[in-house]
Amino acid sequence: MTSPLIYVESCPVCGDGLCRIRICVTNQRLTGLVLCDECETMWTDPSMQERIAPSSSETEPKCPTCNQSLWGDQSHWASIGEVCLLGWFDRVRIAKV
Amino acid sequence: MVSRKRTDTAINTLRMIPTKWAIVLVALLIGYVLLQPRLNQWLGWNLPSVASLVGDEKPTTKKEPKPTKEVVSKEKASEKVTGNVTENTSDKKTSDKKSEIAQASTTKTANRTNDPVPKDSAPKDSRPKDAAEDKIHGILKDLGRNRFESPEGLVYGPGSEEGHRLKHIERHLEDQPSRPGPHGVFDGDMKAFLVAIDRAFAMANKGAKGSSKKEDDGAVVYEATFEKPIGFLGGTDGKRRKNPALKKMRVVVRGKSVITAFPVQ
Ligand SMILES: [Zn+2]
Ligand SMILES: [Zn+2]
Q: B39, B78, B158, B247: which has the fewest C-beta neighbours closer than 10 Å?
């Protein structure tokens, strides 16, 4: 059983990562953003026009809503349902890996 | 002379007993002659041969098991051979390659002088201690709090989806053929990878030929070109292009912390 890998495109910053949809859920509030799974560059949405600047001292990407690590337990890669919920389904690609 | 006398005595003794018993005794004797060496071999007994009984030969001594030390060293030797064979004949670029390299010995490493960086065994754990040098992967200094420093001052610490940067870069020791886009794969083990990352970082800092250093929103992307291939292009892009060899290394650093590193085109 393979899980779908949802991504926008290959990362323009590092060239090797995939810009994927990351979800953070805190206090029943869902935040979606685009995160490179290799260099951890962040964008606000799949248009990838606006970067989320990391704090220079941070080596972990932080959620812009709750400021918790995007590698924390409250965060995960988006499912197809969550991508639909964010209204981003037509802006992502889905690969079987 | 003595044995001949004994043989004559045995024949004389046989003459004194009835013929049918003599036949039985001769049959038993022949049976013993045939079975004695086999019984000794199969069952580990130490039955004397007929020749030794009549004084022509000394009884064989039971073979002692070889000392444990020697057995162990032989096992080690066979492991080395296996490592060499797998390394030298292997042209595989899949996950099982990693485990083969992990089994390979340091001896084998020395044979591959063409490699840009030395190779030795790659432990499965991302942070094994090198007992001799008390260093992680033989080169990283333990800074405490799960942070490790390379000779060039790069720091590998907690972070990434895998929980630790060392685990994260380990992804680039094997191909992910179904991963969309490019996936740079380093052709070597973890220690060799860390050494190559350090070299790329140093070369880019010195402005060596084929190197670059670019700032990007707090991160610095270092790139350096090696003289020989250090890996190959994997992922779906690599698969489509028949996994071309890669000579360039890219290292993404934030502060002194390595975010990621991998071979690139
Ligand atoms: Zn990236
Ligand atoms: Zn959050």
A: B78
Among residues B214, B178, B213, B117, the alpha carbon closest in space to that of A2 is found at B178
C-alpha dihedral over B27, B31, B33, B39, to 10 degrees?
-160
Q: In the beta sheet, which residues pair with residue B141?
A: B149
DSSP letter for B62, please.
P
Nearest ligand to the CA atom of A12? 1
Which residues of chain B lie closer than 8 angstroms to A17, CB-CB? 260
- Band of pLDDT at residue A54, cut at 50, 70 and 90: confident
The pair phi, psi for residue A33, each rounded to 5°, is -155, 175
Torsion angle, alpha carbons of B253, B254, B256, B261, to 10: -20
Torsion of CA B74, B78, B79, B80, to 10 degrees: 100
Read off the pLDDT of residues B30-69 as tens digits, 9 standing for 90 and up: 665 666 656 555 555 555 655 545 444 443 333 333 333 3
Instruction: Provide the ipTM.
Output: 0.93
Measured distance CA(B242)–CA(B264) in Å, rounded: 15
Indicate yes or no: CB of B180 within 8 angstroms of CB of A53: no
Nearest ligand to the C-alpha atom of residue A65: 2
- Whole-structure pTM over 0.80, yes or no? no
The residues spanned by each domain of chain B are: 2-54, 141-264
Helix (H) or strand (E) holding A84: helix A80-85
CA A38 to centroid of ligand 1, rounded, Å: 5
